[in-house]
Design a protein that fits this description.
mainly beta; four-stranded antiparallel β-sheet; Immunoglobulin-like
Length: 183
């Protein structure tokens, strides 16, 4: 595996060779010559840190090639928790054919969370693979909550509705009829 320092050293040697070629009267190439393998920097972010189920959030994948060669067949996959979907699928899958040297590729996916989803903190981890490169992982946690139901209370029964009695200004009103009394 090439380290970043090794790649920088090789790139510096390539720059020196280009300057020597100019001193000798040889035209150097108009674009830098890629040196070393592809090196990918992979990260992900979410649009909100907390989502209430049912609901949605957007997850953005960002892959930057900081190496000396193109990265090919770059694929990001994540098996989603129960109740989560992207375009109706329980697997998030993002593909980039080629990421050139110095290029950054991004992709945003809308994740839907059903009311049946579990609540809690989810690590939200995905894997990135590319031809000839080690597998990379990136994690961005998200909290899933459910809405609170307020005011739903069953009151205890306090008596028969026919036995209700209201006294108002010398008149007694019962559930059966009205009785007037003089006082």
């Amino acid at each position: 595996m090439w380290t970043k320092n090794a790649i920088r050293t090789i790139a510096l040697l390539g720059l020196l060779i280009g300057h020597q070629a100019t001193a000798l009267g040889i035209d150097p190439p108009s674009e830098p010559i890629p040196v070393g393998p592809a090196v990918l920097d992979y990260s992900r972010s979410v649009s909100v840190p907390r989502v209430t189920a049912p609901g949605t959030f957007v997850i953005t994948e960002r892959v930057r090639n900081v190496g000396g060669a193109s990265a090919n067949n770059v694929v990001i996959t994540q098996t989603l928790p129960t109740g989560w979907t992207v375009d109706g699928s329980s697997t998030l899958r993002v593909s980039f054919d080629t990421i050139a040297v110095g290029q950054t590729a991004t992709h945003a996916s809308t994740v839907s969370i059903s009311a049946a989803s579990s609540v809690g903190r989810f690590p939200n981890e995905a894997m990135l693979t590319a031809t000839g490169l080690d597998t990379l992982e990136a994690t961005v946690p998200i909290d899933v909550t459910k809405p609170a139901v307020l005011g739903a209370t069953t009151l205890p029964e306090t008596g028969s509705p026919l036995a209700m009695l209201f006294v108002m200004g010398g008149a007694a009103i019962t559930g059966i009829g009205v009785t007037l009394r003089r006082t």
